[in-house]
Amino acid sequence: MFVTVAAPSGAVAGTADPTPRRRRIRPARLVPYLYVLPGIAFLLLWTYSPLVQTFGLSFYDWNLLPTSPKTFVGLDNYVEVAQLPELHTAIVNTVIYVAAFLVFSLVLPIAIAMLARQVRGRMRTFYQALIFVPFLVTPVATSAVWRWLFAEQGAIATILAGAGIDMPNVFRDADLAIWAVVVIVGWQMLGFGVLVVAAGFAGISPEYGQAASLDGAGTGTITRRITLPLLSPTIVFLALMTILLAAQWTYPIIDLLTQGGPTNSTTNIYYLLYQFGFQNFDTGISSAAGVIFFLGFGVIALVFLELQDRLSFYDN
Amino acid sequence: MAFVAVAAPVAVTGRANTLQSKVEDLAVGSRSHAGVIVGHVILVALALFSVFPVYWMFATALRAPGDALDQTLLPWPLSFENFAYVWNTVPIGSMLVNTFVMSLILAAVQLFIAILAAYGFAVWDFVGSKFLMFLFIGSWLVPFQVTMIPNYLLVSQMGLLGTVGGVIVPQLAGAFAVLLMVQHMRAFPRELLEAAQLDGRSSWSTLWTVVVPNMKPALAALGIMGFISAWNEYLWPALIMRQGDALIQVGVRSFLSAEGNNWGATMAAAGLACVPVLLIYVFLQRYVVDAFVRSGLK
C-alpha cells in the first residue's frame, strides 16, 4: 500500500478509495518498518550491540574464558593501553600505511588518469580490465605469490642479481618488511584507485574546460583551476576511504606474511586488537584500544565530511 | 555521505562515446599523437605490473615440479603435476564447493535483506527513517576489528565456533548493500509505482513484480559484489575456523604453511583459490567493475 508515499499518490488514493483515510493509514504506517526490520535487526545484533559490549568490556579485566570472572577495573585498561609501546608502534605504522596508500590509491591514480586520458575506446577498456585484476585476487593467493616473488630464488631476487644487487629476506628485515606489505597492498589498490578516478573524471562536464580553453587558459591552468576542483568529491572520498580502511586492507597480508613482525615492525592498529584479544586473551586491553580507535576515526570522518561540504565544487 | 560522491557508472567501463570524446578533446587540449603514445606506454606498464604476479602464480604452478625455480617467462613443458599434488594432498575440491555455496548464500541473503530495506527507505517517508538510515551509514565507521570479540562470543554462545554457519551469521546483512540499493531504488520511476498502486497491487507484489524485474543489472552487480567479497573475506573465517579444511581461505593457508618453499604446489593451491572469482570477472567484467567502483568499498 502506497497511501503514505507522497503527496501525489495520496491524492490518487483518496479519489480511488472512499474508505476513511484514518483506518487505512494505520496498517500502512507499519509497512515500511516491516521492510526495514530484517536489516536493522541484523545491524543491531552484529554491529551496534557488540559496539556497546566492546565499550563495556573496556572497563573490565577478563581473559575471554566464560568460566573465569570479569573484574571491574574502571579506566585502568585505558591508562595501561596508552602506555604500551606496541600501541605507539602500531599507530606510527598505521600512519605510514595510510600515507603510502594515499600515494597508491590517490596520487598515482590521478597522475595516471591525467596522463592516460587521451587513450580511449576499446584499448582503454582493455587496459582498465587488466589493471583491476589485483583487487580481486584473494588474500591467501596474494600473500603466497608475493612471498614467492620476494623469495631468495624468486623473480625479484633474480632480476636484482642481474643488476648486481643482493636482495635480503624482506619479510625478516625490520626496515624492509613494512615496505613489502605496502607494495603488496598497493598493488591491490592501485587499479581500484585508477578506475574510481577515471569514473570521477568522466563525471566532469567537459564544457567548463572548453569554455576556459576558449578564454585562453592553458592545459595546466585548466587542470589546476577546473579539473581538480571538480574532481574534489572523488578525491575527498578516496582520501577518507584510504584513511579509514588502510589498516583493514593490510590486515590479511600482515596476518599471512609477517604476523606483525619482525619485532612489531609491520603491525597496525587492527592487527594489534587481534593480538591483544586472541593471542594474549586480554579483552580489556583490546576493547579499550578498540574504543580509542573507533572514536579517533569517528572524529577524522566527521572532519572529512565537513571538509567535503566546504571544499567540494559540485557540478550541477 | 561519502560514497555517493563517485558518479558516472557509464564511464567506468571506458565506454565514453565518441561524441563525448570529441568534446573532451576540446576541453583538455586536442588529442595529440604524443599524448596518445604516452598514455599507451603508461597504461601498458601499469597493466603489466598488475597482471604479472597473477600470471607468475599460474606460470609457476604449471611448470613441472623439477622446474619450479625456473625464472623463464614461459612455463614449458607444461605440467599439471602440481595441481594433481594439491588435489591429492588436501580436499581442495570440497573447500572450493563449500566456499562457493557459502558465498552464494551470503550474496543471496544480503541481496534479499537489502532489497527489502531499500524499498522501505526509498518508497516511504516514515517517522525515524532518517535515524534508521543513519544507523546503516554509521556502521561504515565501526571497524569489524573493534566489534570482533563480542561477535566471537555471540557465535560461541550459539555453538557455531569452527563451523561455516559461524562464519556466515554475522555477515548476513551488509550495510553497504542496503545503502547502494537505496540509491538505486530512489532512482526508480515513481510513475511505475503509482501505476502499480492504481492496479490495486499490494506493496509486496509491486516490489517483486514491478521494481525487482526492472532493476536486474543493479541487482546482478550487487549480488556479484557480495559473492566476491564473501569469497575474499579473510579475517572472520580465519578467526572462526582457526584450522580445518572446510573453507578455502583457511585450508589454503594451512597448506601454504605446511608446504613452505614448495613453490609449484603453493602456487597451484593459491591459483585454485582465485579461479572462481577470476572466472566471474572474465565473464561478467562490467558488473564486477561497476559494483566495486560505484560503491568504492570492498
Main interface: chain pair and counts: A-B, 130 and 123 residues
- The helix content of chain A, as a percent range, equals over 70%
Number of strands of chain B: 0
What is the number of helices of chain B? Answer: 15
CATH architecture of the largest domain in chain B: Orthogonal Bundle
Class by alpha and beta content of chain A:
mainly alpha
Q: What does the average pLDDT of chain A come to? A: 85
Q: How does the overall form of chain A come out from the CA principal axes?
A: globular
Count of all domains of chain A = 2
Short description:
The complex is a heterodimer of chains A (316) and B (298). Chain A is mostly helical and 316 residues long.
Written description of the protein model:
The complex is a heterodimer of chains A (316) and B (298). Chain A is mainly α. In chain A, 74% of the residues lie in helices and 1% in strands. Chain A contains 13 helices and two strands. Chain A has a two-stranded antiparallel ribbon with strand order 1-2. Chain A is globular, with a radius of gyration of 26 Å. Chain A starts with 6 loop residues before the first helix and ends in a 5-residue tail after the last helix. The N terminus of chain A is likely disordered. By secondary structure, chain B is mainly α. Chain B folds into two domains: 78 residues, no CATH class; 206 residues, Orthogonal Bundle (MetI-like fold), CATH 1.10.3720. Chain B is globular, with a radius of gyration of 23 Å. Chains A and B meet through helix 1, helix 2, helix 5, helix 6 and helix 7 of A and helix 1, helix 2, helix 3, helix 5 and helix 6 of B.
